[in-house]
Specification:
sialyltransferase cstii, chain A; 9 strands; alpha/beta; 247 residues
């Protein structure tokens, strides 16, 4: 394990930070308290001014259908460079997505991150197979799982890293799923990738079924999962607690 990451092992709590609009409802005082906890961010959470403990780099912003004015590789890397105390983990997709940007070859990323091989399964795995894969330590195997046919999404990568750090509780913030709003956009807007699918900001998140199935399966492990979003679709399968109780 990277020396910067060892400090996050065996904590009581790890917070996974999604990019749902509910992130905007978290008071500044709570962000200050979150600085004392281990937090894992991914995708475009870097548009927020909070500096997470760990950032998972996997975003394929160079792919034409994903390109957007804000969401570019240079912007993404510049955001990462602004962090002072964040441990960067690259889940390298180059083996199965060779057209994606190779973050591991960028000088800043290469010299300041832990590189893991991104893996995924094209077929549907059994619940036990999913559990076995996600409870295998990512840092020991040098692999970070992205999911199977029924779960594949970035939340799987974040959950694999969180579980590899062996906390007692894993808490989801900003994992809303009930719509397609994002914290850095106006409330009645959504990302171009959503619009390209003919959906709107009111549509349920594209991965909502995958995320629910994923967490339902992982409930069979030793970890306790908690939602910190009042209306999250995850609340149908795990407990919800107000963030003030969690930090």
């Amino acid at each position: 394990m990277h020396p910067d990451l060892s400090q996050h092992r065996d904590k009581n709590k790890i917070f996974i930070l999604g990019s749902g609009y509910s992130i905007n409802s978290i008071p500044k005082s709570m962000w200050t308290k979150l600085e004392k906890h281990t937090t894992i961010a991914f995708n475009w959470f870097c548009f927020h001014n909070f500096e997470p403990s760990i950032y998972i780099v996997r975003e394929q912003a160079n792919i034409k259908k994903r390109q957007n004015k804000q969401e570019t590789v240079p912007n993404f890397i510049n955001k990462l460079k602004s962090y002072k105390n964040t441990s960067i983990i690259v889940s390298d997709v180059s083996r199965h997505s060779p057209q994606a940007y190779k973050y591991k070859d960028h000088s800043f990323i290469k010299n300041n991150s832990t590189i893991l091989r991104d893996t995924k399964c094209k077929t549907e795995m059994s619940i036990q197979q999913l559990i076995n894969t996600l409870t295998e330590n990512a840092f020991e195997s040098k692999k970070c799982f992205h999911g199977d046919k029924k779960t594949a999404c970035s939340l799987v990568n974040a959950l694999h890293i969180a579980m590899s750090l062996n906390p007692k509780e894993i808490i989801f913030l900003g994992v809303d799923l009930y719509d397609s709003k994002y914290f850095w956009m106006k409330e009645n807007k959504t990302r171009h990738t959503v619009r390209n699918k003919g959906q709107t900001f009111k549509s349920r998140h594209a991965t909502h079924n995958r995320a629910i199935h994923l967490v339902r399966c992982m409930k069979k492990t030793k970890y306790t999962f908690i939602s910190g979003v009042k209306k999250s679709l995850l609340n149908s399968i795990i407990d919800y607690k107000n963030i003030k109780e969690l930090v």
